[in-house]
Amino acid sequence: MSSVSSSCSTSSLAFSVLDLAPINAGSTPADTFRHSLDLAQNVERLGYTRYWLSEHHNMASVASSAPVVLIGHLAGGTTTLRIGSGGVMLPNHAPLVVAEQFGTLATLYPGRIDLGLGRAPGSDQATAQAIRGGRFGGVQDFPRDIQQLQTYFSTTNRTNAVRAIPGEGLDIPLYILGSSTDSAYLAAALGLPYAFASHFAPGQLLPALEIYRQHFRPSTHLAAPYVIACVNVVAADTDAEAQRLSTSLQQFMLGVIKGRPAPLQPPVDSMRGLWEPAHQHAVGQMLAYSFIGSQATIERELREFVDQTQVNELMAVSNIFSHQARVYSYQLLAEVLRGLPPGPLEAGLVGAALLPGRAR
User: Which Gene Ontology CC terms are recorded (predicted)?
Assistant: First the structure.
């Protein structure tokens, strides 16, 4: 293993993208996929580390029901950007199939594929039942399924009766995704990097990070804790324009809270009349870790967030209706993050063999 350094580079905070593949009002999934590819190509030029796609089902507002297919599509249209899942909802799938799928991707695009794993259904319970069938209790099997995946990827599995080909012997980084403290204990016990969904579950972020760091066990995969925090970002030239653009995100989350998710709506001048005070409060709570404004505003607020959380990497999700405004938001964010250092507690993880997401 590489040694762990205690130095901190002012440009060592990694920054990445989470794409929910939102479907805009008046658009089609084909439009979404075209925009995702264009965004991936743009953020690759901007220096982003990775681009992850989520898994959601039975949602008229989201087109990422088959992230493994989209990962291949985007990896084929880029050259250096890491592409991965944020994540594959493992209880929805047999570990062998996931190992074969990601083994195929990693064989086609070596050193560029990430496998983020979550335990949530990514859908409502009826849809989860339709997907999982007899494996509906698969959530309880999540830790065992991760270890089964690791076995399929290992070289020692070559003598077993069931093998993942391609997949066996490949270096495919695994990440544990979570929105609660349960996932923090699991990521720590397995010695794997931890990505937290603070873009919609902010309340558990700080206790989850504390648990992960306190209980982390070094592994052959990782020598020290590595944290990715996913946050909402809407950047524009002015605070007022960013606030206006963010009303699309607010409408999106309002639909989720009301149980009626709808395609991403155009921004409005005011949310007044679109939500009741209780809904406004609920949306505000879910979007607590949202960074909305000009570069100056976002830099100040993100610096406070990084100082507080000591994260290694920021992953931004930007549900902005205009594709051009969305690309521009990621450009403004990249310019801010290039000069934003991580907190000193986590900055020592510099070994290429230990740092998740570094192409080999």
Answer: cytosol
User: What is the per-residue burial (b if ≥16 Cβ within 10 Å, else e) of 164-181?
Assistant: bebbbebebbbbbbbbbb
Residues 47-70 have pLDDT tens digits of: 999 999 999 888 888 999 999 999
Give the other-Cβ count within 10 Å of 243's Cβ.
Answer: 17
pTM listed for this prediction: 0.89
What are the φ/ψ torsions at residue 167 (nearest 5 degrees)? 140, -45
Core vs surface per residue 128-158: b (16+ CB within 10 A) or e = beebbeebeebbeebeebbebbbbbbeeebe
Q: Any idea where the domains of the chain sit in the sequence?
A: 14-337
- Of 327, 322, 331, 334, give the one whose Cα is nearest residue 246: 322
Q: Are strands 290-293 and 174-178 parallel, antiparallel or unpaired?
A: unpaired
User: Residue 346: CB partners within 8 Å, gap ≥ 6?
Assistant: 224, 225, 226, 227, 310, 311, 312
Gap between the Cα atoms of 300 and 245, Å rounded: 20
Cα(21)–Cα(338) distance, integer angstroms = 25
Q: Is 5's pLDDT higher than 90?
A: no
Domain 14-337 has CATH 3.20.20.450: no
